[in-house]
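User: Structure please.
Assistant: Input sequence and predicted structure:
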Amino acid sequence: MEGIGLGRKGWVKIGILGGTFNPIHIGHLILAEEAFSKLNLDKVIFVPAYLPPHKDEAVLDAEHRFNMTVLAIEGNPHFEVSRVEIEVKQKSYSIDTLQKFREKYGPKADFFFITGSDSLKELSSWKNIDDVFRLANFIVAKRPGFPIGRAPKEVRVVVITEAEVSASEIRKRLKEKRSIRYLVPEKVRDYIDKYKLYS
């Protein structure tokens, strides 16, 4: 982690937090907030996937997941949501997303690609993973139940507050008509209820 928080004069430090967000929950928000603080970022951009390449289960429509992410970050001035992966309307690959952000922000941007430790086991199957490492600082947040183990030298680890909540557990609760209060932001809970999602 040495040097990560120092930054370079005139450069912008941007965290990129991609995911299915199916649905977004407090664990995602805690991860983004602590990464923002610990990495001394200027902002964190949430990037909902259109069709994530490593997910086998059925995924809710991208527009619903985007809308819930927008609701979840309301009131946080250093959070943004991007439609960059949704607009391509095909499988979302991190390398393509990073290249688009490089085009948008130019050469004086430092990208910090943030993912959970559960993603490490899939790294070898990522599209052009060496180019991902080249375009961004690859940040892994240590998640409960997913030890870091042996990771590529390019991976940098951030320890975050453990929040044992998962989107799959939330979907299971909703299917069983159980409460998800405090697992997701209240506006997200209202949105799920309004559109009868995951039931």
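The radius of gyration is 16 Å.
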